[in-house]
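Action item from last meeting closed. Structure (331 res):
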């Protein structure tokens, strides 16, 4: 009962600190932090804030890095909005459970966003290219998660951010924090909350605030054909999350995942915000739907060591959509 009270109190404390603010759209900096580079969670449109685990959790809810109870290496390549744009988001990371009782976990990720060579033109000759330039966006993160009990996990991520051109650069730092609560038989019911991208202003010649946001989510697993995760071959997970943005409209995300013997996972998600489908008044490149698939292949007899391939697609308008592919190694 104390664990339930703790989760409710933390949720209330976070919620009172944030509310959506669409009037401030475009005023935040370091918006690279808003891009989810991982295929698994992006296939559900970030709806799995309550049940996310492993290295991917560092981008959505750092309390989840301890959930794998092992060591994981992960890599992803994201072709943002449309492959024809040539905008790439590459991310590498690992997480490791530590300590005699395995109640603690550490994580590390490094990510970069590249835009390719951008042509330089002048007002007098807008059709003639006189050279090219590059934009650099880079972030490095370290996370820590602790298991207070089987029901309550909490974690924090500290992130260093760097952005700039050849002649102007900026650096900053941000903090993420989150909790997860597990309940019910076989932990079928999950609750999660995370606060992301909190930190001081970044400065070029002026100052820009970080795009802070609050996630609150829940999920439930339906076991088909048995009463425990070890017995069933089919698991259906329903997930939902609410996102409150300090510099944007509030959003609601919904996700559905089907898992067959932990080998094959199929995902679909949808994110809703006011007027998201309106071509005139909509303010998002993403138009709502997402989908994904994972193959999780064991390579030891006890199936503890596994290799996984993840893919996700997020619809975007008027672009052709974001494709993300990744690989994970669980040891």
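Sequence:
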């Amino acid at each position: 009962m104390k664990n339930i009270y703790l989760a409710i109190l933390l949720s209330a404390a976070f919620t009172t600190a944030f509310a959506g603010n669409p009037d401030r759209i475009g005023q935040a900096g370091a918006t690279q932090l808003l891009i989810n580079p991982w295929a698994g969670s992006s296939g559900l449109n970030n709806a799995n804030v309550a049940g996310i685990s492993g290295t991917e959790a560092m981008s959505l809810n750092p309390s989840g890095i301890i959930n794998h109870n092992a060591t994981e290496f992960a890599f992803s390549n994201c072709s943002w909005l449309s492959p024809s744009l040539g905008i790439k988001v590459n991310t590498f990371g690992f997480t490791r459970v530590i300590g005699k009782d395995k109640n603690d976990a550490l994580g590390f990720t490094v990510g970069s966003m590249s835009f390719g060579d951008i042509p330089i033109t002048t007002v007098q000759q807008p059709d003639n290219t006189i050279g090219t330039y590059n934009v650099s966006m880079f972030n490095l993160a370290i996370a820590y998660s602790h298991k207070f009990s089987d029901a309550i996990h909490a974690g924090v991520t500290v992130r260093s951010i760097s952005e700039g051109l050849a002649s102007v650069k900026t650096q900053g730092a941000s903090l993420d924090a989150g909790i997860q609560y597990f309940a019910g038989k076989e932990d079928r019911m999950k609750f999660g909350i995370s606060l992301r991208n909190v930190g001081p202003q970044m400065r070029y010649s002026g100052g820009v605030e970080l795009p802070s946001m609050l996630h609150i989510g829940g999920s439930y697993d339906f076991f088909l054909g048995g009463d425990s995760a070890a017995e069933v071959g089919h698991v259906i997970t329903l997930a939902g999350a609410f996102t409150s943005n300090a510099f944007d409209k509030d959003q609601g995300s919904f996700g559905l995942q089907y898992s067959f013997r932990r080998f094959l996972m199929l995902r679909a998600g949808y994110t809703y915000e006011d007027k998201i489908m309106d071509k005139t008044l909509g303010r998002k490149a993403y138009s709502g739907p997402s989908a994904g698939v994972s193959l999780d292949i064991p390579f030891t007899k006890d199936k503890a060591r596994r290799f996984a391939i993840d893919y996700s697609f997020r619809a975007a308008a008027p672009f052709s959509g974001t494709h993300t592919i990744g690989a994970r190694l669980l040891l």
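Note appended to the action item: Confidence is low (pLDDT under 50) at residues 4-18.
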